[in-house]
């Protein structure tokens, strides 16, 4: 993810362990390219702590999953120790809606208390209720999903009447905390053909309010874990995107311009080298480990085998080779999340690598996104 307001991200870029994690990531990328065993764990681990959710989003089917017996807080405590020792730095607490877990703040503190950078991915419905606990959790970043510039479009996609108003109020409560010590607050819009005509309005509405404004293209991979939208909604109109970003700072965003050109010429996202199971991994609420954030195939369970053993296993190594050579999905994780972009930086650079990563703004939350211009927070009108 790119960002312009460097100072807002100082707690990540200057945090203890960040430089070391980037160096470990570089070693992983080089080892991966040379066919050698990886030197460290993933830079980023996406942890879906529950599939329970108080939204009924069209593009997601997780809220329909009835399974219980999620990983306990003590199991996340043990995982936090393993990931820290393996050199991981970025932890994304997601779902479902993670704030629906009674013990979610204990889980967050398991990672933040060990010096790792924690991003909370939330639909925002519980921000007002838990803003104080979020503020005191040690989380570095909060990414709030909003799927439109208007309540009508957002509420229709998310399936919850009056949710937009409730989320807006919760964001304001979180922003009311001291800026120097509260988490970074970002809003993220998943764009599809249902709401792409609101990109400009969304950007202008939130740009001067929150710390960052993000856009995440909806997409469909044939082997993906979930998608609930019909196929016509998934095919983004590049000309409409170009029109929406015209006369905004987004028109100069390198990724957006490449996205538009790629959609116009070949109908897909721009190609990037895949670094699944090299720089990132995902773990579902029951401990199953997935090399790819789209959860194509599980390579083991941390309830049966510790994460370090899974990460260094022959099974996951085979999946790395499969991902690198046989999979033809150009997903947004390697584009808008810029995992591929930073992987290439780490592979090509040497002494300059740490500075390049900081200068080009390494991601705070990997399934995050296209970022626009930042401004100082203000009150949303």
Descriptive overview:
The protein is an alpha/beta fold and 381 residues long. It contains 15 helices and nine strands. Strands 8-7-1-2-3-4-5-6-9 form a nine-stranded mixed beta sheet. The radius of gyration is 19 Å and the shape is globular.
Helices and strands, with pairings:
Blueprint: H1 10-13, H2 18-34, E1 44-48, H3 73-85, E2 90-94, H4 104-112, E3 117-122, H5 127-136, E4 141-145, H6 151-158, H7 163-175, E5 184-191, H8 199-206, E6 212-217, H9 231-234, H10 238-245, H11 254-266, E7 280-283, E8 289-290, H12 307-311, H13 314-325, H14 339-348, H15 353-359, E9 370-371
Unreliable stretches:
334-338, 350-381
Rough outline: globular
The pLDDT mean sits at 82
N-to-C series of helices and strands: HHEHEHEHEHHEHEHHHEEHHHHE
Percent of residues in β-strands: 5-15%
| Strand line-up of the largest beta sheet | 8-7-1-2-3-4-5-6-9
Summarize the structure.
This protein has 381 residues and is α/β, with parallel strands linked by helices.
């Amino acid at each position: 993810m790119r960002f312009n307001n460097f100072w807002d991200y100082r707690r990540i870029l200057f945090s203890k362990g960040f430089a070391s994690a980037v160096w470990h990531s570089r070693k992983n990328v080089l080892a991966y390219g040379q066919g050698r065993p990886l030197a460290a764990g993933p830079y980023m681990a996406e942890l879906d702590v529950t599939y329970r959710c108080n939204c009924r989003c069209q593009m997601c089917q997780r809220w329909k999953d009835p399974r219980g017996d999620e990983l306990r807080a003590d199991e996340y405590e043990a995982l936090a120790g393993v990931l820290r020792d393996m050199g991981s730095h970025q932890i994304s607490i997601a779902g479902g809606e993670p704030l629906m877990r009674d013990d979610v703040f204990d889980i967050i503190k398991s990672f933040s208390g060990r010096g790792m950078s924690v991003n909370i991915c939330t639909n925002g419905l519980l921000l007002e209720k838990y803003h104080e606990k979020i503020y005191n959790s040690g989380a570095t970043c909060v990414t709030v999903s909003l799927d439109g510039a208007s309540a009508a479009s957002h509420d229709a996609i998310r399936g919850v009447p009056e949710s937009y108003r409730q989320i807006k109020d919760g964001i304001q409560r979180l922003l009311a905390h001291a800026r120097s010590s509260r988490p970074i607050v970002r809003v993220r819009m998943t764009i599809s053909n249902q709401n792409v005509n609101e990109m400009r309005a969304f950007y202008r509405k939130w740009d001067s309010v929150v710390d960052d404004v993000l856009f995440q293209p909806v997409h469909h991979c044939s082997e993906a874990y979930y998608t609930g939208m019909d196929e016509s909604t998934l095919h983004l109109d590049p000309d409409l995107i170009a029109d929406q970003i015209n006369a905004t700072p987004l028109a100069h965003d390198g990724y957006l311009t490449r996205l538009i050109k790629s959609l116009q010429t070949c109908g897909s996202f721009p190609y990037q080298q895949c670094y699944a199971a090299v720089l990132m991994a995902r773990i579902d609420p029951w401990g199953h480990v997935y090399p790819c954030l789209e959860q194509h195939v599980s390579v083991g369970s941390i309830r049966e085998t510790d994460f370090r053993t899974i990460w260094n296993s022959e099974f996951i190594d085979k999946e790395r080779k499969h991902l690198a050579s046989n999979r033809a999905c150009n997903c947004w994780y390697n584009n808008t999340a810029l995992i591929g972009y930073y992987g290439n930086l780490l592979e090509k650079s040497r002494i300059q690598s740490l500075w390049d990563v900081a200068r080009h703004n390494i991601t705070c939350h990997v399934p995050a996104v296209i970022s626009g211009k930042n401004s100082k927070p203000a009150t949303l009108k």
